[in-house]
């Protein structure tokens, strides 16, 4: 009688590798549905004929998604009112038609919100888990985050606004909050994917008799869809905070997300025994640097730096190589992924418009009794509805038809949708300028509103939401899958770092974020995104052909032990050589 342990040797290695903090039942809960069935790796013929499906998601992954929900509830609850908080002068009574506190104008508001985005996404590049580990890094920066929240809430009180403490308090708080955000963001994304431990595809027979291939690619796609869904449920906090700023005041708007951050810290601390987390390894930067340095000395590029080849061509260099052949393959795969990320600043430039200039645009339109900055919540509402449809119907349906929509194709679609959003927004801006009573200069009018409904903005947010499904979610998935285990937080940080370059581009556009130039700004951004979409597909579509093979690059437990022992031996050799 076949026992549960009778799976393929590859699968067994996967189960046993780094499972000291998680039970095997959490790795593949569905692998053991049929007690007497083996799960072999798919053959070439099965790859051609069987459809791909996702595996079950471990329970610990849901716990990480809950952490991200709480943090994003806080983040978007804060940033939702930021544009009005900076742009408009303080209100004397509530409810306020144009709530505000600083009265700095649209250009300053756009510049400061852009700086905040820049700061939030440059800190992941500074902070990594190479020494502390993901869990300790998240705890540390959650504490820093909390300090910034307290300062922001305190300086948003009526007394602080009246005493002109609001502006310096805001600057200090966003610097602290941005630092905390970066430390959390770069580590929580790879942490959620680390909860799934399988590295290889296998064939499985479903209860309805269908034979399918369970793949890590489909599973990670599902994990990051759910992760992003949790982000957008949390971002709906901006509905509450924008209503609070209008009807009560900014202190109340910021108190709500501050209080919500407390459960985030509690979940992080109480659930620490549930997480699967890879131990930190601080030498990865040094090793990668040495590989690049060696590649300058030997012919053949990075492949020639594999120790097995160095022992033949350059024995003197091979003696000091602390890496193995698999590390070089992992590094090459990582570089290919990072090359794709170089296009993302243009995408994030499109996306960032919904947090500043589209809010200001809504302020020049008729919004009825709702605040102008509530319009941005159309984006997460669309995502909350659309992500489950894509995850449960569209993607599985396409896989059933033999079209699994590999990452580069999805990213290309995302850029096209972002370009469509900006092109439509440019058209709406032109329509605003053609509408009375203020035409091209609504911001100079008494009410600042032309006679056109803010409902015209809905397609802008709809297309941006679609672009996030294809570009942003896939970018997270791609950053995780293509990075070796030792570099996942670093590569995720590099992906998030592309937001910083988008912020720099947004800074360059601040001089044209004034009437009557706004429609030309949106047009230029739309053209840039569309051109990038074409270039991404031209230069990187071939990556989709090797997507599955690239993801399979990795090391098993024996290779990891041998790798560690080799590093220790080389370190001893270098120490002895230095002593001599």
Automatic annotation (TrEMBL):
<keyword id="KW-0472">Membrane</keyword>
<feature type="transmembrane region" description="Helical">
    <location>
        <begin position="490"/>
        <end position="512"/>
    </location>
</feature>
<feature type="transmembrane region" description="Helical">
    <location>
        <begin position="518"/>
        <end position="539"/>
    </location>
</feature>
<dbReference type="InterPro" id="IPR018456">
    <property type="entry name" value="PTR2_symporter_CS"/>
</dbReference>
<feature type="transmembrane region" description="Helical">
    <location>
        <begin position="248"/>
        <end position="271"/>
    </location>
</feature>
<feature type="transmembrane region" description="Helical">
    <location>
        <begin position="458"/>
        <end position="478"/>
    </location>
</feature>
<comment type="similarity">
    <text>Belongs to the major facilitator superfamily. Proton-dependent oligopeptide transporter (POT/PTR) (TC 2.A.17) family.</text>
</comment>
<protein>
    <submittedName>
        <fullName>POT family-domain-containing protein</fullName>
    </submittedName>
</protein>
<feature type="region of interest" description="Disordered">
    <location>
        <begin position="1"/>
        <end position="27"/>
    </location>
</feature>
<feature type="transmembrane region" description="Helical">
    <location>
        <begin position="223"/>
        <end position="242"/>
    </location>
</feature>
<dbReference type="InterPro" id="IPR000109">
    <property type="entry name" value="POT_fam"/>
</dbReference>
<feature type="compositionally biased region" description="Basic and acidic residues">
    <location>
        <begin position="15"/>
        <end position="27"/>
    </location>
</feature>
<keyword id="KW-0813">Transport</keyword>
<feature type="transmembrane region" description="Helical">
    <location>
        <begin position="407"/>
        <end position="430"/>
    </location>
</feature>
<dbReference type="GO" id="GO:0071916">
    <property type="term" value="F:dipeptide transmembrane transporter activity"/>
</dbReference>
<keyword id="KW-1133">Transmembrane helix</keyword>
<dbReference type="Pfam" id="PF00854">
    <property type="entry name" value="PTR2"/>
</dbReference>
<dbReference type="InterPro" id="IPR036259">
    <property type="entry name" value="MFS_trans_sf"/>
</dbReference>
<dbReference type="GO" id="GO:0005886">
    <property type="term" value="C:plasma membrane"/>
</dbReference>
<feature type="transmembrane region" description="Helical">
    <location>
        <begin position="167"/>
        <end position="188"/>
    </location>
</feature>
<keyword id="KW-0812">Transmembrane</keyword>
<feature type="transmembrane region" description="Helical">
    <location>
        <begin position="138"/>
        <end position="161"/>
    </location>
</feature>
